[in-house]
Amino acid sequence: MELKNDRFLRALARQHVDRTPVWMMRQAGRYLPEYREVRGQAGDFMSLCRDADRACEVTLQPLERYALDAAILFSDILTIPDAMGLGLYFETGEGPKFRKTVRSEADVAALHQPVAERDLDYVMRAVSTIRRELNGRVPLIGFSGSPWTLATYMVEGGSSKDFRHVKSMLYGSPDTMHQLLDILAHSVTDYLNAQIRAGAQAVQIFDTWGGTLSTPAYREFSLSYMEQIVAGLIREHEGRRVPVILFTKNGGQWLEDIAGSGPDAVGLDWTTELSDARARVGHKVALQGNLDPNVLFANPAAIRAEVGRILDSYGEGPGHVFNLGHGISQFTDPGHVDAFIDALHELSPRYHNQIAMG
Hints:
globular, decarboxylase, cytoplasm, Uroporphyrinogen_deCOase
């Protein structure tokens, strides 16, 4: 099926576009009243994820409100550990938790290695349903958590402020940590390839907790496993390249290493300046980001000013996908997203007026 809007894929390939494409991390979610209504009907978060029709409905909701250039699968980064038998559940106000933790070599050995198309078939049904309903309107992004990020939740049993248990394993039992990360890298590769076969046209790996590591630990325990995944992904499907985006929150200091690990694009949070990032990686990869989500709490004039500043920081030419530096807050006024998208549509075309570049 022909894509009616391929700006996002063209930007990831560093090809000429008429304006900077945009999508938002967590664009389908709690800041939208229509999402909250469907979530209430589903009963709970994971029931919503497992219902292909409702997952499709909430994936498409932000596209009905805003002129976005991509849809992202509605799911959760913790579906793989859930399929491994750890018992994922959500505590109100506390985020995801697991009934079982993984803190020993025996715990790692006991893990069930999921087969994505069998054990996570509800995700693939959602992907294929969304692709059908999109009908070529915009590309669909699939995603997964990185091995290190998944391991963090699995070892800690949920979110953490000090990462005490997972770093204790990393430094005290590195062989056990590598065994866990190797299992997860194979599972993520299988999971993302299954999403691509089901219809995902680009994929993003979310390394939410990579930025908590020292430089040597990041390279050994996070980036090396993402590099392994990238090398194992389907990169051509349905006659098009399937681009891969790597996003390490607080990872700007390792930008060159991340860019060298094989992705098409590197996602950046707001702590890395785009002009600096572009100077450092040159033409190697596209860059995605990086509006601080809290800017959306400001007035529309301030939002517009910050959008303009970020566009100016990246500068002219191809290779920029506009996004937030992390997920949109549930407390964001949907009208402020209008101000953001409108400003981008108005201000970005002048950065793409030069002759098409390859």
